[in-house]
Amino acid sequence: MQKEAAIREPLILGHKTYHDITEDVCRPIEDKAPKMWYILFGIALVIGLYGVGAICYLLGTGIGVWGLNKTIGWAWDITNFVWWVGIGHAGTLISAVLLLFRQKWRMAINRSAEAMTIFAVFMAGTFPLIHMGRLWVGYWTLPLPNQFGSLWVNFNSPLLWDVFAISTYLSVSLVFWYIGLIPDFATIRDRAKKPVAKKMYSILSFGWSGRAKHWNRFELVSLVLAGLATPLVFSVHSIVSFDFATSVIPGWHTTIFPPYFVAGAVFSGFAMVQTLLLIMRKAMGLEAYIHTKHVEYMNIVIMVTGSIVGTAYITELFISWYSGVEYEAYAFLNRATGPYWWAYWSMMTCNVISPQLMWIRKLRRSLLFTFFISIVVNIGMWFERYVIIVTSLHRDYLPSAWSMHFPSHIDIAVYIGTIGLFFVFFLLFARFFPVLALNEVKTILKGSGQSYKESPDYHEHH
Amino acid sequence: MGLTRKYWKGIEELKETPEFIKHKEQEFPSQQTIEQFLADDNLAETSTARRDFLKFLGFSVAAATLAACEAPVTKAVPYVVKPENVTPGMPTWYASTYYDGNSYASILVKTREGRPIFIKGNHEFGFTKGGTNPQIVASVLGLYDSERLTGPKANKKDASLSSVDKEISSAIKSAKKVTLFSSTVISPSLNRAITEMATALNGEGGSKFEHIQYDAVSYSAMREANNKNFGAPIIPGYDFSKAKTIVSLDADFLSSWLLPTEFAVQYGQTRIPGDNMSKHFQFESVMTVTGSNADYRGMAKPSELAGILAYLIKGLGGKSGVDASVPSGSKLAADEALKALKKSGKDSLVVCGSNNVGLQILTNKLNNQLKAYGNTIDLTNTIELFKGDDTKVQKLVKDVISGKGPDVLLMYGVNPVYTLPNGEEFGKALSNITTVSFASHADETASLCKYICPDHHALEGWNDYKAKANQYAVAQPTIRPLHNTVSALESLLVWNGKAQRGGKDSAVAYDYIAATFAATITSGDFAFTTHNSCSDLVVVPSALSYSDASASKFPKGGDLEVVFYQKAGIGIGAHANNPWLQELPDPITKVTWDNYITMNPVTMEKDGYVTTYDQEHGLNTATVTVNGKSVTLPVYPMPGQAIGTIGIALGYGRGANGEKIGKAAYQTKEYGGHDLGENGKPKAIGANVFGFVSTANGTYEYANVAKISKAEGTYPIAATQIHHTVMGRHSIVRETTLDIFNNRDKEAYNPAHMLEKLNKEGHHEERPVSEFDLWDAHPVEKIGHRWGMTIDLSSCIGCGTCLVACQVENNVPVVGKDEVRRGREMHWLRIDRYFSTEEEAAIGTKKDKDNFSYDKAEHAAENPKVVHMPMLCHHCNHAPCETVCPVAATTHSNEGLNQMAYNRCIGTRYCANNCPYKVRRFNWFNYPSYKKFVEVNPAQDDLGRMVLNPDVTVRTRGVMEKCSLCVQRIQATKLVAKKEARVVADGEFATACSDACPTNAIVVGDWNDIKSNIRKSSEDKRAYQALEEVGVKPNIWYKVKVRNEENNDLNKLQVAEAKVEHKKAHH
């Protein structure tokens, strides 16, 4: 057991015992779901089904049901894709990178953050699939042996790299998340009274018995997976950014993109974690485990990554002017002052100004303010992708082809639908899965719990 | 010795097991009946358990389902006996002639398996020398129009030909007065038949039969003016190729005036920069195709043209009797024109497009002063088109309306109910008399006629034409008539009792034309003429001489004058049902599927109209009132429109009462189906403004005094280009003046884009961008073919013929107004049109690089200069589209082509996004089957589908497509050469666009052939590659636009800058 300085804020508030932790995490699963859960689930399901309906219409009719045109071949589809992938960054960062850095505060949030990651990547993955003109031959993007002669995928194409990057990320995240869930499932299994639930959780827990050998393997696998996942955190969004960076379109063709996209992804991912957890801690009575200090830590991450993003924006502007390239310069002038100026300035306000407010301690420790900013940041990050994709395309080289993009109602339905589906998954997760890594949290109870820090015993040793 | 060896078939036989012995005699195992099999109690214990059964069932269902996903089988029926002249897969070309009462050209018709599918100009025979226009190229679709009448009609019901013939013949016989009301008849045979009829009916000196010719857009004033000046109502021949100075007043001679198919070719010859380049001045109200090509363009109201003519006459030392006042918008152009006319003298040509006798007399006077007659104007080889006499027409119309008209009215090639200013009254009066129409559709006029005897489509029948005095041309059928239509010539002969009907394969017209030919050209060979499509005629030199005539009654002026003009695609509306033409962007406004009010944006801003539009934001509408009649249309911001004038295109509003004139002639709804008006009939496209034509001075004048008032609401506009300036981007458009071009180095006006690199000594050095390369070069240089193209911006006039030719050749789908509005037109080749701005010295050249205002550069100048820039796939050797496709659906051929494998495409659209030229087109829907395109896309019609080119795949939903550089033609050319064991000759291969170009602005060929035209053209000092600095190494070159003008701003920049560069190089 590690000890830490008493002046550090405890990570677990109140006088919790090991049993309390188990109770707090398992209670929502074992009790009947509250009415509110059903209401939220119903709303999310309706929205999700609306989105599924829109997708079916899209697949049945053609990509023309979206608002795209000859000049703007990607708009909301890829914006949403990058937005969701970005959101899906926080989970792995929290569980993998913070694990390697031994940040104990991650334990309270990593489970839901990872779940969020996986669901977000599901949503993200939808868009590259449905944006294809011919989804039914989409499997041609996989380097499968085939009977078409020597026909192979094009390894030069960043879209192909995307296929590999996203699928790798999804599978590693999924495994990582699941490994962490095994001991917790075992706890629920052991407590379960109903035979069906007991059976289900015993299957899910893979016969976990809590032996020292199991724990030893568990720790090892976690470490190995964290090692594997860490580079992925950086690679996925770097590769997504290559979709743009390797092109010849002014506003896309930018070497700064990989770090800028990764920072942006972490930025938006943490914002989404904040949005979800601030609600969840209240709804599920987890205030003792996820509290102001956690929120503050995350706000610091938001502030740092937000500053990186802001720096990137300003660097882009400067370079576009400094390069002396006519098209590059115009692309950025047009972003700021052209027909999509409102999108650009929404992005700037949400992503550059709002995180800077986190320098003020009072604000970054305010839960209400944090919730507000987390929404603002996600709006801003959606606009960032929209600005990059649409404003670069809508006025590129030849003014004769300049155009505007207006979303159709199917564009909107598909986007809203994925948000609905995301919440369907997340609500199911909150209902049936341990939302806190309860066995992991227990490991810090002695070191970072409030009652232990306040006990005379604790002070004696120091 | 006995048999010691033992042969055996198996161990069982060798060992003679009891089992073997038992079955020895039985070759096959015992046959069980089904009853026996089912009665077997052990059946239930067979190894196929229930679960296995379910697995098998599941597999079978899945397999059957997957198998059902295959595309439906369509059957092709092969020829059992091969027709003599048809080889499947090989096209057959026929030389023919096109004439529809408005356009004329010598053409070649391509047929495949007996179906005509493509029309192009005949470069070798005929005075049009390969020149065509969009309407001629697109006319092939009219053959397959499913709403064309399929046989004769009487009282709106199908009728048998024999009964119709009988009734019409007897009506003609018993009538007191018979009038043939036709468009200008240039057919010697038809004229002979008409004369025969007149002789038969009139006898000696009678007046029972009368032939009145009527042109929807009349040139009556020209003939009348020439009658006054020369004593003969002729239209002389014009030779623009001889003219050093061309002055045109409201004459759109490159697109709609008189004989543009001939004039555009001639004009193209004078636009090659060098000492022989012509200087072209245009004075007009609406910016026309011709005006957009002028070196100097003056803005003038129709009522101000007389003053300009008078100014020029006065300047050349003559007297006109008219006040020589020049409007401010034309001052510079008029002064320059005067200078140029003085210099070029008899090598000048002045033309006037107004149908006003006074203006035409002034024009004649000016031409006479210049001594143009006998030089650029040929009084001998006259133009035989447009013989309509407005006075006679007006009398006939008045007679019909007042009930004093003929008893029998035969109408051929005219649609007066639509095209007459008082067409509606005329239409109402038709019910009182016996009317016969030859129209192909039950159109505005024919639907009101008692009898309709539909004529063949132009590609189905024999015809002969004399469009100019010295040429006799033949049109031959390229397909057996699809329907029970009859030749109009034959009908006239039959009704006159001179011939019997010959059925579907009738030879009546052929025999009659052959006889006419024999009588006209005594030494000629008709079969040979048919083969070439034309034969020369001998003309006696004209003895006409000029005498002065007084000019009066000029167009009336007003605060607001409205001008009626023809668009390149729709013209007078005869082809309003042709979706290719409806979707052809207007060469200047780039608007499709509509007509509108054109107004100068300067005026619009003052009067509170919006001047920008996009997918979701339409234009304001306004109501124009002329003589109490009014029409409401959107107001389009047209830079260069003379202040105080507006323009509205003719040819729209066809079929306003829901007449069946073709599916594509009506507005469609967002999800397909015709948009129905309040009367339950489909809404016409645009509005008909023939009713506004002025008759104040006796002739039909296509301008009038009008009032305009802003109306409620906005109207969505489907334009293919919504940004109109090039924003000073010099790597896209390059322009210079003739003076700079003649006297300066390439560096002055066409400098290479320079990048810095380190040389061997470690110093920075500026090198042209062509020397830099991120990629390995494709092995296309010096190996085999490398197809390339140059496009000369100086000779491209923006007429749009190439665009339609490309659409026909490559089965490019038509998508309709709503999709064009959304920015999804499918054209593989588009023509970008850029207006100059106040920020630019010339299009693409910034006046002041440091203080360039992008805001101001978005707005065209009040009277802008124009560049037309055809834009198509550049077949880049380092194509950005190729690297980004995840499945390698677009790749580079070893002949330098960027090729699209539709079958492999999964539709990510990444390639389109990454294309710097934005020439890739995505199949957003299944155009050949989705309900939205039923009315507009020919591929959705059983008959219309016949026009598809079998050499080109019809693309399915979800795949990308783009210009293939007519790869099917490349392959065909290579095959021909291969069979003849030779290399492909230069000029042997032509793309649809280069073939169609009347001014030869597009040159294609094998760039690796160092003697080829394309190689020479691409190495010309005017050649440059658009967006060269992106480094994509295109196989398409443009050639700098050279304007024959004085341009001090440009002079300063290109000459001064070149000097600085020069100095730098010396350092």
**End-to-end Cα distance of chain A:** 14 Å
Oligomeric assembly: heterodimer
Low-pLDDT ranges of chain A: none
Task: Specify Rg of chain A, calculated over alpha carbons.
Answer: 23 Å
Biggest β-sheet: strands ordered side by side in the sheet of chain B: 5-4-16-15-14-6-7
- Helical percentage of chain B: 25-40%
Total beta strand runs of chain B: 42
According to DSSP, the number of beta strands of chain A is 0
Rg of chain B, please? 34 Å
User: Which protein chains are joined by the largest interface, and how many residues does each one contribute?
Assistant: A-B, 53 and 60 residues
Report the β-strand fraction of chain B as a percent range. Answer: 15-25%
Mean pLDDT across all residues of chain B, rounded? 91
The overall average pLDDT of chain A, rounded, is: 89
Question: Strand portion of chain A, in percent?
Answer: under 5%
How many DSSP helices of chain B? 33
Shape descriptor of chain B = globular
For the record, give the distance between the C-alpha atoms at the N and C termini of chain B, rounded to a whole number: 116 Å
Query: Which spans of chain B have pLDDT < 50 for at least 5 consecutive residues?
Result: none
Structural overview:
- The complex is a heterodimer of chains A (462) and B (1067).
- Chain A has 462 residues and is mainly α.
- Chain A has 18 helices and no strands.
- Chain A has helices at 18-30, 35-61, 76-87, 90-100, 110-130, 158-191, 195-204, 212-245, 257-283, 292-322, 326-337, 341-356, 361-364, 367-394, 409-432, 438-448, 450-454, 456-460.
- Chain A is globular.
- Chain B has 1067 residues and is of the alpha/beta class.
- Chain B is built from 33 helices and 42 strands.
- The longest helix of chain B has 19 residues, at 50-68.
- The chains are: A mainly alpha (462), B alpha/beta (1067).
- Chains A and B meet through α6 and α11 of A and β31, α28, α29 and β37 of B.
